[in-house]
Amino acid sequence: MAVEPQSTQTCVITRPDDWHLHLREGALLKKVLPDTASVFARAIIMPNLRPPVTTVDRAVAYRDEICQALLLSDAQQRSFEPLMTLYLTEQTTAQEIKKAAECPFIHAVKLYPAGATTNADAGVRDIRQAYAALEAMQTHGLPLLMHGEVVDPDIDIFDREAVFIDRVLTPLMKDLPELTMVMEHITTEVAVDFVKAGPDHLGATITAHHLLLNRNAMFDGGLRPHHYCLPLIKREKHRQALVAIATSGHPRFFLGTDSAPHPQGAKESACGCAGIYTARDAMGFYAEVFDQANALDKLEGFASLFGADFYGLPRNQDRIALHRIPREIPETVDFGEVTGVPLRAGGQVAWTVNLC
Predict the structure, then answer these.
(1) What residues are paired with 353 via a beta bridge?
(2) Is 258 a known active-site residue?
(3) Domains parsed from the chain with CATH numbers
(4) pTM tops 0.70
(5) Does residue 2 contact residue 292 with C-beta atoms inside 8 Å?
(6) Which residue of 69, 118, 207, 250 is 20 to 30 Å from 184, comparing CA positions?
């Protein structure tokens, strides 16, 4: 990575990938896709649509919709590859997993505990009921991506990730020791330590908002619905643990924005949706975190190299430049038929990005 003197600092890095992204469908997809495709070369696309993407045929059709939207967008001059996933259910068959593993467009299967987050009602209630599919994934080398929380009502919502590790992930790793797994959007020191101590085929993604915010941000001067996400942002000590591992150069922790577009009205409601929209300024946010940690030299690995290596995909050949030039963030963004509110709406991000 090339870094110029701080007064006019520009960082040039390999073009990054987003290993956890929500694009939705229809008009919303068409509006949010350019925010990702203008910077990132590839993205793992989440399958929690309505109805969810539970079959190979549905995943291929969704990919076709994304590619068609890309052709019509302002980002069409740039290559962008959607990496598709299946939504794991207790009815997912080993045959469907084999078919997915043979499909060049499908790169993973997503575990949502039932009710854990947006459109997770069709998810898994008892992980053992999905073992036939999970065993097939181990056999065929298809990674399991995990929303790592339990949803039992007796568990404090801030403890869901740690309890998931104890109750679900640890037994799963014992039963299926060769299954490649990713703990997505980790939020706690517990998860950091668990992944660090784990095998080479256990990775983790980290979002920009979990690096930037602690849980006080949800209550700063009142309830802040646009800082509400799942898993929740946690205590400051957990944020610091995430920053430390992200900026350490550890190869099994890599970028996944979990950028999630929701209409403004759905966020600012009596029962608001979980999710934070960061795609527009994601790389600028990550650059802020790494800059503040005096670790800009580690940004390229986290954003551009480690995820590709973990998934066994070639590293990107093109590059982006990040300039220490503030960029204004609008109060709202156009989501087609509705508006959305991005992270840090009405403020600034300290870094501006462009493709080299």
Answers:
(1) 322
(2) yes
(3) 17-274 (3.20.20.140)
(4) yes
(5) no
(6) 69
Angle between helix 26-37 and helix 56-71 axes, rounded to 10 deg: 70
Per the CB < 8 A criterion, the answer to whether 16 and 40 are in contact is yes
CA 333 to chain centre: 20
CA angle 191, 197, 199 (to 5 degrees): 110
Q: How many CA atoms lie within 13 A of 129 on its CB side?
A: 12
Q: What are phi and psi of 166, to 5 degrees?
A: -70, -45
Distances (CA, A) of 66 to 71, 159, 224: 9, 36, 31
Which tokens sit at 124? Answer: 């898994």
- Choice among 17, 35, 258, 291 that is catalytic: 258
**C-alpha–C-alpha distance, residues 258 and 9, integer Å:** 28
> What residues pair up with 111 in beta bridges, in sequence order?
146
92 and 57 Cβ atoms separated by less than 8 Å: no
pLDDT 10s digit of each residue in the chain, 356 long?
765 544 459 999 999 999 999 999 999 999 999 999 999 999 999 999 999 999 999 999 999 999 999 988 765 557 899 999 999 999 999 999 999 999 999 999 999 998 878 777 888 999 999 999 999 999 999 999 999 999 999 999 999 999 999 999 999 999 999 999 999 999 999 999 999 999 999 999 999 999 999 999 999 999 999 999 999 999 999 999 999 999 999 999 999 999 999 999 999 999 999 999 999 999 999 999 999 999 999 999 999 999 999 999 999 999 999 999 999 999 999 999 899 999 999 999 999 999 88
* Contact assessment for residue 30 and residue 23, using Cβ atoms and an 8 Å cutoff: no
Query: ∠ at Cα 189 (184, 193), nearest 5°?
Result: 80
| Phi, psi torsion values for 58, nearest 5 degrees | -65, -40
Structure tokens at 50: 């309505």
Helix, strand, or coil here: 24? Answer: coil
